[in-house]
Amino acid sequence: MQAQKRGKARKTYHQGLTREGLAIAALALVDREGIEALSYRRLAEAIGCEAMSLYHYFPSKAHLIDAVIDLVFGELEVPPSGGAWLDRVRKAAWNYRAMALSHPKLYPLIAVHRMNTAVGVRKLDEIIGLFRAGGFDDATAAKLFRDFGYYITGAALDETAGYAKGPSAAEPVSDAEIARDCPNLAAVAPYFTPQHFEPTFAQGLELLLEGMARLRRKP
């Protein structure tokens, strides 16, 4: 009878599992195969346990996804207080881009997911603190936070899942036709390739930071 109870317990609980370990395994699955591949069955197969065991740690797939996003977003490094505030904003932007590029198959979900877990709101609070530390009033700090978010989110989305990876027309215009009929597009097209992504991000970020610095100098 006792052996039967132990056998039943093994179907719903796995002694060696932890929430963090499961989140790490789920992230690895998403990194390999994409968010669409994440299911309790696939995760259980990957770690060698019964799918029902996972419900002991995460009552729903939504809870599991929250844990995966917390794992990635929670490790985003926001420079601590001290030093020039604009340098801190710059570093945070580069750290955010690095986070997105490290997990390109997860990032499109991060970009639109509400960061309203305990981990998420604390990280948002840190980022907003960068702009309040610049001496701006709360309304301006809120706007700058959103401006910053528009830029880094859009840039990261474009690099991980953007235009070049999007759906194509049924009958796309050929390169020869573009060269003949669209001289402006043909002239700049070579600079849309991945080797130009980083310098493009750097240029756009510096333009944004320059605008922030001018705003701060206003009387």
* Beta-strand content bin: under 5%
Number of helices: 11
The biggest sheet amounts to: none
Give the N-terminus to C-terminus distance in angstroms.
80 Å
| CATH architecture title of the largest domain | Orthogonal Bundle
Per CATH, the class of the largest domain reads: Mainly Alpha
CATH T-level fold name of the largest domain: Tetracycline Repressor, domain 2
Helix content: 55-70%
Q: Would you identify the regions where 5 or more consecutive residues have pLDDT less than 50? A: 1-13
What do these coordinates show?
By secondary structure, the protein is an all-alpha fold. The chain has two domains: 2-72, Arc Repressor Mutant, subunit A (Orthogonal Bundle), CATH 1.10.10.60; 77-217, Tetracycline Repressor, domain 2. Helix content is 66%, strand content 0%. It has eleven helices and no strands. The model is unreliable at 1-13 (pLDDT under 50).
Short description:
The protein has 219 residues and is an all-alpha fold. The chain has eleven helices and no strands.
